[in-house]
Design brief:
Strand content: 5-15%
Strand order of the largest sheet: 1-2
Order of helices and strands: HHEEHHHEHHHEH
Distance between the termini: 42 Å
Helix content: 40-55%
Low-confidence stretches: none
Structural class: mainly alpha
Radius of gyration: 19 Å
Mean pLDDT: 92
Length: 196
C-alpha cells in the first residue's frame, strides 16, 4: 500500500470492467465501449484507435501492435506479434549494392510495413463482439470533429517540428504555419478520419 502522505497514485478497481491508457479520452472511449456491450477486446481496439488519432507523435496506424490476451480470463496467455515485416525484397545485399552500409532512424529503409491494422483485424475476428465500424467510430469522430491537444502530446509534437517540416505531406497534416499545436488547441485530422 502506498504512503498517502506523499503524492502518488492509488490502485484503481472496477466491478464490471476497467481500462487504462496514457490519455483520459482513450480510457473514456474504452469504458464507453464496455458500457455499450462490447467486450475487453473491442474496448482495447477502440482505445488504441483513439490513441492513434489524439497522440499522433506517440503512435499511429502506420505502427505496430503487440497484445497479450487471457481468453475468457483463463490462465493461458496468448500473444500476438503485430509488428510489421521488413519488405521482402529489401535484403542486405540490395542495400550494400546501393552503397548503403548504415541505416539511420529517419531512413525509409528503417521502416517496416505497418502491422497494427492487421493485428486489430486479427484480434477482432478472434475475440471481438461489436461491429468493427462501431469500434472505430470514436476514433473517426475525434479525427473528423477534432480533439484537444494535451500538454504531453503538445510537448512531443513540438519536439518533432523539425522532422515534420522536412516532409511536405507530414507538415501539411501536423503543422499549422510551420508550428505544432499548443496544449489546449483543437486539432483535426480529416484525412485520418477518411482512412479509418
Amino acid at each position: 500500500m502506498r504512503n498517502f502522505v506523499y503524492p502518488g497514485r492509488s490502485v484503481s478497481y472496477g466491478v464490471n470492467g476497467a481500462a487504462a491508457t496514457s490519455n483520459q479520452h482513450a480510457t473514456h472511449v474504452a469504458l464507453s465501449i464496455l458500457k455499450a456491450g462490447g467486450n475487453a477486446m473491442d474496448a482495447a481496439i477502440a482505445a488504441c484507435a483513439v490513441q492513434c488519432v489524439i497522440d499522433p507523435m506517440q503512435t499511429g496506424i502506420g505502427g505496430d501492435c503487440f497484445a497479450l490476451i487471457a481468453p475468457g480470463g483463463s490462465d493461458q496467455i496468448e500473444g500476438l506479434n503485430g509488428s510489421g515485416r521488413a519488405p521482402s525484397k529489401l535484403t542486405a545485399d540490395v542495400l550494400l549494392g546501393q552503397a548503403i552500409n548504415e541505416i539511420s532512424l529517419t531512413s525509409p529503409h528503417s521502416v517496416t510495413l505497418p502491422g497494427s491494422i492487421d493485428a486489430w483485424i486479427t484480434l477482432h475476428e478472434k475475440y471481438g463482439s461489436m461491429d468493427f465500424a462501431d469500434i472505430l467510430a470514436p476514433a473517426i469522430d475525434s479525427a473528423e470533429n477534432g480533439f484537444v491537444v494535451t500538454q504531453r502530446t503538445s510537448v512531443d509534437w513540438q519536439m518533432t517540428e523539425e522532422k515534420l517540416r522536412d516532409n511536405e505531406a507530414a507538415a501539411e497534416l501536423f503543422l499549422k504555419g510551420g508550428a505544432a499545436p499548443k496544449a489546449g488547441s483543437l486539432w483535426h485530422l480529416p484525412k485520418l478520419a477518411k482512412t479509418l
